[in-house]
Design a protein that fits this description.
785 residues; FAD/NAD(P)-binding domain; seven-stranded mixed sheet; five-stranded parallel sheet; 28 helices; globular; FAD-dependent oxidoreductase; FAD
Length: 785
């Protein structure tokens, strides 16, 4: 069965394995004394051909060595001992060869299998494991053959039975034919089931039944019950939802079912289907305007994506945001007529089949927002480079920098471009986002359908590049974009870097009007689909009923009901502040506590009375910090958006933002006194201005406003743990990064954002929000993860 027409494994290496046994077949089939001679000639031809091709194989090397020894012992030395034990030695040699290859972690059948299978499968653990099993079967067959032959030699009265002697060999041959047809499918199926079993087992509510309930159950005002009717509601932390700052709004809602639908003399509302996911007395005490299908905590791009998609699919959604504008880090602010961005300087995924573009098209927003492509400049100790807008020209530029590595550079750039396209090739049928294989067939065919991207999954970014290129200058250029994912540099997983090749293939873009525009159009999409976005609204805690999500309580004591809550907030804030660790499994609590925050940043915003005179994005990489720098700044990014959108600044003026990553945590700055923190920021501002002045001499003379942001600033506006700008970092697992599951242990509670798969960046959180929405309610494609 051809790999081009089916993903089901074929007989891995069977042809090559049989060819490897050809000398032994000659040995066993030719009459004495020609058997050893025939084996020697056959082994010499096969192994000699392999040496010429520089592809020697373990088994053929063993075969040639054995038959050369046999020829010497039988025809040169005429050894009677060797002649007597020849049969045993044959099988013992083969068993030793098979066991030695296993000990060397290079099963001998793997070498033959690689000749029959495409290179894309060679690093697949399942492919290797299958050959381990086959090699072990041959080892056992050879040991059995050696034992049977030894028995015939030691007990002369037993007549030799070739069929019984070679029964192990026949069994191993049959195993070689059929095991690759069975085991990979079974192993993948088990792996997929185990992956699903590791996820919380709860199911989404029946939205049809819930919608009838929230629409038709009448609202009974609290005063109808009197003060005795309002029992203390149990929130996530064991307190009344009205406790804490802002208490004094709507009375706390009781979770007790002491009042039945008929207990007030009112007629029971029509409810179809399964029982309501929330108790009827609770629903009666909540105004209809505060009943929703889904509540989203945090109006970051991940939360807005999930909210807009679910509203588009007919659910009533409410987004709650503590800031006065949506977007999270995707926000803009104005100082003296200059518009700056809170954290987003470039957007990927806006190219054909890109998740951001597909999101906007599906929601009908593509005409409401315009993107403009920005340029890149790289400044290194070796000089200044302006990155071309064409991928071909970019490749040629790298070749000009290292002409001695032209072949490796062109091969690498071809692989990167192919891998990039493979990431997105399935998005039209996988819920508008790249998705991992979900079935046995998809998993087995994935390496062949996505060969270049699949290959990258086994490497760090630095390792993947160095397979082809060694020139440090070229490597430094290709490492430039790792800063968009954190501070791991070349140690960043290659699979996470491949999507960023879009900056070179299709170009990075910036929204006209500032990054706030993207958040605004997604908010509009929610509102136009009968959803709500409540700004300047703080969520006090997530409310639970019998261990399941029931809604949220707000800072003013108001309670909103919904059987599903999506948190776009920092996971540590979500679990330890909004839910409460006592409601979570202890192992899960320990895991969340272990998660390390990603880097934060120092940012300097400069309003200039003239244009900055730089390309829109300038990456600066230094050999080390300035002598007077106490902050350890080695590399940074300069951003100027006014060339892309002159309306962001007053006429004839310019803007410049400097961004550098730091591991300094917000807690350290929060412990400073007000005067100490003020002095810290003043020193930071002076130091960062020195770096800017080095790149743009004289620029400080044209500054009309300067402002600095620190990890403390980012924590203040986002509540991200320690002011992290890329969320919580995933744990390292044997098969790559291990992210928090978007499906939490609390039934009805989901996560989206930079701390869950696939990670940070506008494109990453759009994918995260889409994943979540697709799991809660499938889209028009019917795709769910």
């Amino acid at each position: 069965m051809s790999l081009k027409t089916s993903s089901r494994p074929r007989r891995a290496g069977l042809t090559g394995t049989i060819l490897g046994f050809l000398p032994w077949i000659l040995y066993w089939s030719l009459p004495a004394p020609w058997g050893p001679a025939g084996g020697l000639v056959g082994a010499a031809i096969i192994f000699g051909r392999q040496l010429l091709q520089k592809k020697p194989k373990i088994m053929d090397g063993f075969s040639l060595s054995f038959f050369a020894l046999a020829a010497l012992m039988l025809h040169g030395l005429h050894s009677p001992w060797f002649a007597r034990w020849e049969g045993v030695l044959v099988f013992a040699t083969l068993a030793l060869m098979a066991l030695a290859s296993l000990a060397a972690r290079s099963p001998f059948t793997l070498q033959y299998a690689r000749e029959d299978w495409p290179r894309e499968y060679w690093r697949e653990p399942l492919f290797i494991q299958t050959n381990v099993h086959i090699t072990l079967a041959w080892a056992l067959a050879f040991i059995y053959g050696a034992g049977m032959t030894a028995l015939n030699t030691l007990v002369p009265g037993i007549p030799p039975t070739p069929l019984l002697t070679h029964l192990g060999t026949i069994t191993a041959l049959v195993f070689t034919i059929f095991w690759p047809q069975y085991y990979p499918c079974r192993a993948v199926d088990r792996r997929l089931k185990e992956r699903e079993a590791r996820r919380p087992p709860w199911q989404n509510p029946d939205f049809a039944a819930w919608q009838q309930t929230r629409l038709f159950v009448p609202y009974n005002r609290p005063e109808k019950y009197g003060s005795a009717g309002w029992a203390g509601a149990e929130g996530a932390a064991g307190h009344s939802p009205g406790d804490g700052p802002g208490d004094g709004g709507q009375p706390p809602v009781t979770w007790e079912s002491d009042i039945t639908p008929g207990g007030t003399g009112e007629e029971r509302p029509p409810i179809a289907g399964p029982a309501s996911p929330l108790p009827i007395p609770l629903i009666r005490r909540t105004p209809p305007a505060d009943r929703f299908d889904v509540i989203v905590i945090g109006a970051g791009i991940g939360g807005l994506t999930a909210a807009a998609r679910l509203a588009d699919r007919g659910l009533r959604v409410c987004v709650l945001e503590r800031h006065h504008q949506p977007g999270g880090y995707c926000t803009s602010f104005v100082r003296k007529g200059y518009t700056f961005d809170g954290g987003v300087e470039s957007v990927s995924g806006c190219w054909p089949n890109g998740p951001v573009r597909l999101l906007l098209e599906e929601l009908g927003l593509e005409r409401r927002i315009r993107f403009r492509r920005h340029g890149h400049r790289l400044i290194t100790p070796g000089g200044v480079l302006d990155i071309p807008g064409s991928y071909v020209e970019f490749t040629n530029m790298l070749v000009d920098l290292a002409p001695h590595e032209e072949e490796g550079i062109r091969t690498l750039m071809g692989e990167l471009q192919a891998a990039y396209y493979q990431v997105y090739q399935d998005t039209p049928r996988t819920g508008k986002v790249p998705a991992p294989p979900a079935t046995v067939e998809e998993t087995l065919s994935y390496p062949l359908d996505h060969p270049d991207f699949y290959r990258a999954m086994f490497y760090s970014w630095g390792e993947f590049l160095r397979r082809r290129v060694q020139d440090e200058h070229v490597l430094g250029i290709l490492n430039m974009l790792t800063a968009y994912l954190g501070d791991r540099g070349p140690d960043t997983p290659a699979a996470r870097m491949i999507p960023l090749m879009g900056y070179y293939v299709d170009g990075g873009v910036y929204p006209v009007g500032g990054s706030q525009r993207l958040a605004d159009v997604l908010m509009e999409a929610v509102q136009e689909r009968e959803g709500e976005v409540r700004l300047s609204t703080t969520v006090q805690r997530v409310l639970l009923h019998e261990g399941r999500v029931a809604g949220v309580s707000l800072g003013d004591g108001t309670c909103l009901l919904a059987p599903v809550v999506i948190s776009n907030a920092d996971p540590k804030q979500t679990f330890f502040r909004l839910v409460g660790a006592e409601h979570l499994p202890p192992d899960f609590v320990k895991r969340v506590e272990r998660l390390r925050p990603s880097p934060s940043a120092f940012v300097l915003y400069l309003a200039l009375e003239r244009p900055a005179g730089l390309p829109e994005r300038v990456f600066v990489r230094r050999e080390g910090p300035l002598p007077r720098d106490t902050f350890g700044i080695g590399g940074f990014l300069l951003v100027s958006n006014s060339p892309l959108d002159p309306e962001l600044v007053p006429p004839g003026c310019g803007d410049l933002t400097m961004i550098t990553l730091t591991r300094l945590e917000a807690d350290h700055l929060n412990r400073m006194t007000p005067s100490g923190y003020r002095a810290f920021k003043e020193e930071l501002t002076r130091t960062m201005l020195d770096y800017v002045e080095e790149v743009v001499p004289g620029v400080t003379e044209h500054v009309v406003h300067v402002e600095a942001a620190t990890p403390r600033t980012f924590y203040r506006y986002t509540w991200n743990h320690q002011g992290a700008i890329y969320g919580l970092e995933p744990e390292d697992g044997p098969e790559g990064p291990v992210w928090l599951d978007r499906k939490t242990p609390i039934p009805g509670l989901w996560l989206v954002g930079a701390s869950v798969e696939p990670g940070p960046g506008i494109e990453g959180v759009v994918i995260s929000g889409t994943y979540c929405a697709n799991e809660i309610r499938a889209g028009r494609t019917g795709f769910t993860l």
